[in-house]
Design brief:
With about 450 residues, the chain is mainly alpha-helical. It has helices at about 5-20, 45-50, 50-60, 70-75, 80-95, 95-120, 130-135, 145-160, 170-180, 185-205, 265-275, 280-290, 310-325, 335-360, 365-375, 380-390, 395-420, 420-430, 440-445; strands at about 220-225, 235-240, 250-260. The chain folds into 2 domains: about 5-125, no CATH class; about 145-435, no CATH class. Strands 1-3-2 form a 3-stranded mixed sheet.
Length: about 450
Amino acid sequence: MDQAGRYVADGVLGIDTLWGGDVMCPSGTGRFIADSWFSNEPLPAAYTHPAAEHLRRCGGVTGKSLDPEIVEEYLREVDLPRAIAGIHQEAASIGGLRGAYLDGLASCLETMWDLAMEVLGKGDPVPYARSVEASTGKPPEPSRPEAKRQQVAELLGRAGYDLSQTGGVLQAVDTWRRERFIPMASVRGLGAAVIAHFDNLSAKNLIPCLPKELARIPRANIDFLPIKDAWFSGSMNYMGRARNLDDTPQYEATYEINASLQMSYPEFEQLVSHEVVPGHVTTFAYLQSMYARGKAGFEATVLTMNTRAATLFEGIANNAILIAHGVTEVGQLPDEDLQIGVLLALLQDDAKNQSSYLTWGELRPQPEVAATLRRDFLVTEERADKLSGAWGRHPLLGRMYLPAYRSGTERIAELRRAYPADRVLPAIYGCNGLVDIETVEQAVKS
């Protein structure tokens, strides 16, 4: 590990610990900001310091049982501002794509640090615009669901649903979902079948565009696990620490899915493409392969939420179903039921951005935000409650992560329309160097 890597390890795991995350936990109920640690490098002091265990156990700076004296000890002995400044310094020295990536990462960590200090009462309130710009590279803006909602209405009308009934398109969507509802108890069997389907599509429409070394990398070594009463809809937990006899990675992951989700089969197809193949699991596996072959720095092994890289990854994942099918538009998908499912999933991610904008940009109360998400973005009652509550009102996720989905999705869609697949796909999957949502176009052009 070089000096930049040492600073990244301390900075990322320190911020993760401060917010209550445990990257070594196999479950998304324990993980938070740091999405992976697959380098097999020794864990840094930011993770192993005795005070870190208290922070993880109590849920970090937002935890109700947080001991102020232990927090002070951690802040005094684990110098996170120094680590973050070190990333900036190394970025300036390294330059190029890697330097730009590291500099963007450091800026996001600075914002997460300042948000933690705000929560602890040790710093000024962080402006909402700064939080959004740090993670997405763009200022905050409201979502515009009208076009997608109209597309859904047209497709439902063609499928025979009566949109003139009480409740209009929302009632029709609820009926459409109920008629295609999948039980979460069957998620493992269904998941295996859908994963195989998208893995085959990816072999046809993605793999030929990528370096031949990636063809043999497992794209979907994952196990689906239902989990009850989670505050999240699902959690992809990339492990990546298992090794074969020849010491090559097994690229393994799990996906915990909330057992209370109300989801149709077409929406489940979109979820699998998003979370597994050719979405998150595939993206992380390719980056692990790049690191294992010496083509990426240590920072590729400790991938991090609330960053511009995370915005890129969400953009890839939301476009993954189109990548798998080799198309650029939802209307080009082969089945109109699937088109409805994808549009509803995209509306849900537009709703995440809107929840953030209304909650933090306009200071709207939670019941009003929930009603808006349900009415305008056609989400389920369960999703409206979670996105306006546990997610939307979280001082970090609500301001930095919820806007990432929509922003990343639109940017990757723009790039896929503007450049041929054999140019854009290697760049977004990190084959030209690890990139984020701000540096990805430079990689496409290189």
